[in-house]
Amino acid sequence: MDGSAPHILPAPPVPPPPAGRPVVLVVDESAAQRALIARVLARMELEVIDVACPERALEMCREDGGRRIGMVISGWQFRGMDGPEFCAAFREAHAERYTYFVLMTAQSERDAKARGLEAGADDFVTRPVDMAELRARVRAGLRMLAMQEDLLHRNHEVAATLHDLQTIQDATNRDLVEARRLQRGLMPAERARYGPAILRQCLITQGQVGGDLLGHFDLGDGRVALYSIDVSGHGIASALLTGRLAGLFSNWRTHANVTRPGPDAPPDPPECVLGRVNDLMLEAMDTDIYFTCVLAYVDLATGAVEMCQAGHPHPLMRRADGRVETLGDGGPPVGLLPGAAFERSHARMRPGDTLMLYSDGLTECADSWGDMLEEEGLKALVGDGGPDPDQAVDAIEAGLRRHAGIVGFEDDVSMLLFHLEALSGGAG
């Protein structure tokens, strides 16, 4: 545990209460009119509450019974506020739940009805009230209320589903954070010294977990192995493969390292190692994921470099005088083609030289116009970065960020710099 406060999820949404049969509130100054409307509604099996004035109706909205009101049938003329004013006040007081509002009016002018609609009325009944028309208007209102109730429940289902998905996403994110720690733990130290050589590596992942992998280990015969791997795709599947590859190239147990065919055997050449991993992926791993790679052996006594480039960007060699050269002969990715042939290439390091392995997240780093840095731009950054690996890594990262600008990095960025201060064998 990292000691951070536990993540607290919001409570799941509360389902809307069952509406049941709506209560109809009848508001009219005429007791006879209220009684007549109440009898019609009672025959429709509706519960009715009738009051004489809007003020009393608004008081009911502040009482428990007010929450049961689903429909209002109101007159237009009252001693205090009129029908549209009552409608607007009722909407404000009863805003937490939709209510179907019908105004009874003898006014036929367009302006009057427009005022009622602006106040929030849903429908009108002409006075004197025709009971057949009233029943039709009420049935239309009941259909609207039923649709509103159905919408509320569907909205709740959507909210509950989103809450469940957020719960799953939060749990996944927590797992990914832990996976990132584990993935980082599989990589060897970012800084290391091998006799007269200094190594520095840097990995910047774009997600919680990444598909890039860097590493180094002592081959035990005066040589150091360096590797840069970029797994195809992004996300969890790619990250799982990087973990598997980290185990294959790990030096925790030398006899289990993929560079050796057996516990007491010398390391195989880089092309044989990648050929063996290629066969392993195609035969033992049921996956469409593949990876690109550079595997290089550096002899600390002579500066001789043996490497195999498998679909990966060309390694760069920064010479002591600041010149930057491109190395490698290319080759197919690993895990893509059965029986793929991998070729070995050679180079030589001299005191003051720096070998750089990196992923395509550097050369394909794009600015806001979509223009990539490309190999020439990277070579310029490497040339200007200087011989010190720490300073060079910082300078290259800063140059990448300047180039990307507001866009930022769209892919994992990984680089390994191996600087040879002298030859351990004493040769110049």
Descriptive account of the structure:
It is rod-shaped, with a radius of gyration of 38 Å. It has ten helices and 16 strands. The protein has 428 residues and is an alpha+beta fold.
Write the layout of secondary structure elements.
Elements: E1 23-27, H1 31-43, E2 47-51, H2 54-61, E3 69-74, H3 83-93, E4 100-105, H4 110-119, E5 123-126, H5 131-186, E6 191-194, E7 197-204, E8 212-218, E9 223-231, H6 236-248, H7 270-284, E10 291-299, E11 304-310, E12 316-318, E13 324-326, E14 344-348, E15 354-358, H8 360-363, H9 374-385, H10 389-404, E16 413-420
Parallel strand pairs: 1-2, 1-3, 3-4, 4-5
Antiparallel strand pairs: 6-7, 7-16, 8-9, 9-10, 10-11, 11-14, 12-13, 12-15, 15-16
Task: Give the strand order of the largest sheet, numbering strands 1, 2, ... along the chain.
Answer: 6-7-16-15-12-13
Mean pLDDT: 85
Segments where pLDDT lies below 50 for 5+ residues? 1-6
Element string (H = helix, E = strand) = EHEHEHEHEHEEEEHHEEEEEEHHHE
Please summarize the sheet with the most strands.
Answer: 6 strands, antiparallel
Work out the helicity level. Answer: 25-40%
Contiguous helical run count = 10
N- and C-termini, Cα separation: 51 Å
Gyration radius from CA atoms, angstroms: 38 Å
Beta strand %: 15-25%
Estimate the global geometry from the Cα principal axes. Answer: rod-shaped
User: What is the number of beta strands?
Assistant: 16
Structural class: alpha+beta
